[in-house]
């Protein structure tokens, strides 16, 4: 890749498709294919998230599928069409993530109260309002976050998706590097989580240190995200995880002993480190994320104000997008402002949405706040590690207290709080996804306005279908069951009930905020540290492994600076493929998990965990995967150059 198209460290960035070149972009093919993928990814990720508490980023899988359909089957070459497909398709995954972290709480309450489940209309309207606001709130921030901070905020999935699109467009050795990573990650993921021949998550207790453990998710995508983010950001996340798992969990176990402290219902001595993490560390992490978000917003206020001022100035001068560069044209500010206003009014006035005027006002304020935080956060740690559930917890804490103080209590207040939390959670998820997609578009030379319209299309189709998916899953097993435990949603339920009943563990929330403030004072970026504290150490350790390899490549002695840059860029291409490969197979496995087969599912039929190679097999497999990254970088020999 030449200097003009290098994705990191460039002095003067130029998009792959110049602004003066017009290619097919927002076409009927891209819309239909994008909507289809939005439905598929939304349904698959809804199940996956309710089952294991995590979702799979769909941008790269959508881009790869799009290239297969448009380039191979339809025999058309248009990188911008493929970009629109991934833009629309990824909206389904993001909206599903926001919805499943909160809305199942309504189903659980309705069952406990002996009432019918929330209607499909209610679910669709809540999801639609959150999705629309998520896109609209992010649009004014595009130039500030995507353009001005290009090279500062890595946007790992957005950058990786651009690499996939560029490799597919340019072909040659660059494409082979990406698709080699894709193929290896796909096979690896299928063996680990499909056939289950070795566990993808392993951990070890630390001898002589009770309730202390360290683990790692040996997954290709984490290795890829860590490599793209780099050592510093990966290190901040891992540092937060160490504080949680090596310091706080053992201390709580030591001092708590046989005490039963809410929200746990059994003595701390019976919880173990996973139980302590679930009952206490997640609250500490939520407090740190909330405080980090507030600090991030305060520091970003000058940039945000400048962005809005310029946007309003552009509107007042009536600068037509036809007179501006194609690659710099956003949806008009008037449409954005009117759209936001209409959606907020609709939230207040539509009877199916259990939110009053105060709630609608809270959504407008906190929605923009978390859209800003989410858009910046995914630029640091990626959409897959975007703690939207942590943002929702922070929202529920504040909003539930406000509703309670205003007299909106009981069932009405609890449903209103969850509705507010759901909309804001979806806003945060969609804003983060929109940021990644716009970063991809910025790199490849897409038209921002068309991408933003694509995001809105994806949101609408996803909102209309997510309700049916939730209904089917609830009817089959019931939320909170062993099959679909819905971990985030049950936690949201606990938070709202805790505030309404006055028994929320505020000490843990404030402890997290105190840690965040201390970290900020010593000059460490709060959000990646807080994310590491909130998430299990297994995820941060996997990401850290990629960051360490990136550091080694940056520091090693090489024949020349040019060769070192080429090695690092080949690593970016390869790890982009790793993220894509795991994403594709992750979605495939989620689909297989809901297809019945005899007395089980297809996923159950291919489960060979009885022949598992255990932790040793996991370690060996991950080391071999890491060695493939060295193979395509420092051990790579260009046959064309040596010939």
Automatic annotation (TrEMBL):
Keywords: Membrane, Transmembrane, Transmembrane helix, Transport
Protein topology in the membrane: Multi-pass membrane protein
Transferase keyword on record: no
Entry keyword annotation includes Metal-binding: no
Source organism of this protein record: Romboutsia faecis
InterPro entries (alphabetical): Oligopep_transpt, OPT, YSL-like
Protein name in UniProt: Oligopeptide transporter, OPT family
Alphabetical list of PANTHER family matching this protein: OLIGOPEPTIDE TRANSPORTER YGL114W-RELATED
TM helices/strands, residue ranges: 26-48, 54-74, 95-111, 123-141, 236-257, 331-350, 357-378, 384-403, 415-432, 452-473, 506-527, 533-553, 573-597, 617-636
Compartments, record wording: Membrane
